[in-house]
Amino acid sequence: MDLGRTVISTLLLAHSYLRFGVLAAVLAGLCATLLGWWSQRSPAQWDRILAIVFLGLYDLQALIGVILLAQGAVKSHLHATVMLLGVILAHILFRSVRSAPVEKSWLPRFLFYALPLACIIAGLVAIGHFPI
């Protein structure tokens, strides 16, 4: 096996397993947001940390996906399109979370997790990996 195939195989494996980290981060963030919204508390530092962890993992997942797409290792362009849309949405919504007044930040936080999660689910459905 040549080096190129080894790298692609490693990236495919990383992309496959990283999805669990992305899903765990988005679900943890969504749960924390809903609990915070329900209890009417102010967002804490860990709310921001959860958002950054989710965004970082999602960005890494997207980067690996784009590399795989460029190498021809991804067969579903629908999957790639939906996932990239989710990443773009996440970044736009993260900005709205950061700019929202603290007392009105729960809805933007909810959307920050819920809309990319919908894209993730749609992307997984597009390649037949949902339910996980």
TrEMBL record:
TM segment ranges: 20-38, 50-70, 76-94, 106-130
Keyword annotations from UniProtKB, A to Z: Membrane, Transmembrane, Transmembrane helix
Protein name: Uncharacterized protein
